[in-house]
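Internal ticket #5521
Category: modeling
Description: The requester needs a full-assembly model to guide mutagenesis choices. All entity lines are attached below as received. Residue total reported by intake: 196.
Assigned to: D.W.
Attached entities:
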Amino acid sequence: MNSATRTNRATTIVDVYGHIDLGSSPALRKTLLLALKETDRLAINLAGVKYMDSSGIASLLEILKE
Amino acid sequence: VVRAAVEALGTIYGLPAHGCRGIALAVDEALANIIRHAYHGDFNRAIEVNCRVLADRLEFTLLDQGEPPDPVRIAPHALDDLSLSGRGTHIIRSIMDEVIYERTPGGNQLRLSKWLPGAEPGTSGEEKEV
């Protein structure tokens, strides 16, 4: 899994690529939590994600709850 | 590696593309549950994965020597839209046609079965170990 963070107008966008599973979801969670600290408008672009398991879904839900 | 092998096995035995992706996800979720709950996050403990092809089904057996699962956690239950846990078990039960957990002398054994297209469940016939 890879990710890149960019800003478009007032929105922080995290582009995510590759496979999200038990091994990589902690890194995704960390990236998204860091991004969320710096903005109140966060978009997550999952167009480049080829695979996601329940740990990835849990990470996204955790960010949604934050 | 396991995901790729399981998906390829599904393709060879005639499952449609979404079915192949589904069984790979289900086996992956089961492995993740073992690592997370039975082995408490230790990625280096052994998990034995066996694949059998029967006349009516693909059968995946996962064996671990970790802590036995909490029966409440592995029982079928409704999932809250925002719950952070239990989703893996829910996914496994949604995809696979049969999910059987057994405590055996060799450890915790989870058997996941997916019926093959056109096969009548219960006509297991000869088996092939893969």
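Resolution: model delivered.
Comment from assignee: Residues 76 and 90 of chain B are 7 Å apart (CA to CA).
Ticket closed.
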